[in-house]
Amino acid sequence: MSADRSSTTLIVAELRRQVDHQLTAGAATDTKAAGLIAATFALVALVAPRVQIDGPVGAAAATVTFGLALLTLFELMQAIKPRVKTFSYGPNAKSLKEFLGDPVEDLEIAMVDVFAEARDDNEDALEDKAESLILGIKALIVTVLGLGVMLAGGAIA
Fold it and tell me: Phi and psi at residue 102, in whole multiples of 5°?
């Protein structure tokens, strides 16, 4: 019995460690995305007053570049969307109350299931956050290229 409890305790500890690591990874993604959002706003704020739209080609270039900036912001915001429904921190405190008076082994086995499910759910959420961050970075790069085209074409003074 103590060997089972020992292995269960080790599994719970390892799964908890993995969930904690996922939380740290999520926070790091949030920080990167927030920094890129600030950089995108700064870039737009610096360039927008200098845009000179001369004719339909300049208007099209400005519209496409502005749309790319909006796409960049949208994707980066998706990377830092709230974790309320997408991220799990482990067992629900209310559900743990059901185990009051039960053997410790029963609680530990239930926690293995909950932490394993939380870990899997968090992997999906982290993957979504990473994809949004990468798409936001790609959109930002294309936005900067669009600004370069506008600058070369004389649409930015």
Answer: -80, 160
**pLDDT tens across 17-48, in order?**
999 999 999 999 999 999 999 999 999 999 99
Residue 12: closest CA among 83, 117, 97: 117
Could you give the dihedral angle defined by the CA atoms of residues 58, 61, 65 and 71, in that order, rounded to the nearest 10 degrees? 130
**51 three-class SS:** strand
pTM of the full structure: 0.81
Residues 2, 124: Cα–Cα separation, whole Å:
34
> What are the pLDDT digits (tens) for 60-93?
888 999 999 999 999 999 998 776 677 888 888 7
The residues, any chain, with a CB within 8 Å of residue 62's CB and separated by 6 or more, are 51, 53, 150, 155
Alpha helices in the chain (DSSP H): 2-47, 55-79, 93-96, 104-152
